[in-house]
Structure formats: structure tokens, C-alpha cells
Design a protein that fits this description.
Elements: H1 18-23, H2 35-38, E1 43-47, E2 50-54, H3 68-101
Antiparallel strand pairs: 1-2
Length: 110
């Protein structure tokens, strides 16, 4: 329907913060908009000649576990950093062992 009538359709297709969601709607952000989260029905908003329709299909409340697909980038970054640290540690260790084997390193013990 949107493509046929040249309407803009924003389908995030993934999790989004409620504040980001509200920023796309013509609403006063200081008002309580918890009714948007209570049911999965279409809500209508208007601003001048513009009409906005929104539906929230799933909600995660504060304190709930974050969905894995939302945290994927963070998890990938953590694993990448851990792997990078391990590679650097192994490289430093191999340089040290090679220097000891070539007797280019002297260890002084008091």
C-alpha cells in the first residue's frame, strides 16, 4: 500500500530504543506514551497534513535481558578485541623466547 501510494514506510525490523522510536513521531516527548507499549494495535498521529501510523510488535522493559540480535555487534567487538589481545600476547611471547634462545636477553635476578 505504501509503495503504491508513494508513502514512506519505516520498518526497523530490529530492536530500537523507545526514545529513538518517539523521535520519529510528532509527539511531545515529555508526555507519557506508555499506551504505545501496552498493546499491538495501530496508533495514529498527525501533524498538519501529515499522518503517522505506528505499531509496536514486541517490547522489552527496563531490566529485561537485551535480545541477542541487538547485542550482536557488541559481542563481535568483544570477541575481536580478545582475539587481537591473544595474538599480540603470543607474538610478544615468541619474540621473547627467540631472544632468550639467541642469548640476546639477560635476566638479572637479585
Amino acid at each position: 500500500i505504501c509503495a503504491k501510494n508513494n508513502f514512506e514506510l519505516s520498518d526497523w525490523g530490529s530492536w530500537v530504543d523507545f526514545s529513538d522510536f518517539l523521535s520519529r513521531l510528532p509527539v511531545d516527548r515529555s508526555d507519557d506514551h506508555s499506551e504505545l507499549l501496552s498493546d499491538a494495535k495501530v496508533h495514529e498521529f498527525s501533524s498538519g497534513d501529515w499522518r503517522y501510523y505506528a505499531i509496536v510488535t514486541a517490547v522489552r522493559r527496563a531490566g529485561d535481558l537485551s535480545p541477542a540480535e541487538r547485542e550482536r555487534d557488541v559481542i563481535v567487538r568483544i570477541l575481536y578485541n580478545q582475539r587481537q589481545s591473544e595474538i599480540i600476547r603470543r607474538y610478544e611471547d615468541s619474540i621473547y623466547r627467540a631472544a632468550v634462545a639467541a642469548k640476546r636477553v639477560v635476566i638479572n635476578v637479585d
